[in-house]
Model the fold of this input.
Amino acid sequence: MKAVPAWVSYSVLRVLMFAVPLAVLLTLQIEWWLAAGLSALIGVSLSYILLRKPRERVALGLYQARHPDKDVVHPDAASEDASLDRAEAAAASELSQASERERQAE
Done:
């Protein structure tokens, strides 16, 4: 059986996070426009908090579709490696500048 694409499951979960609070608020006989606004806020908040991994899978799928020739970059590893490389380069640069200043001072 074929796996469900990440964007389909993410979209269904987002719709559910809007529809369930809307149904509850409408059942409590709250005005429809107020219930829709509150449901939208609740849905956005819940999806931001609870759907991080599905959102990242959808974003990765979009990136791969737009850039099929590039390798996948894992954000955590790449940013960590880049920041470590920058820190090492800055430290090496400061050491070389300090040693150059000492030589010029002598």
User: Anything to note?
Assistant: The chain has four helices and no strands. The radius of gyration is 25 Å. Helices lie at 6-27, 32-50, 52-66, 75-105. Residues 14 and 23 are 15 Å apart (CA to CA).
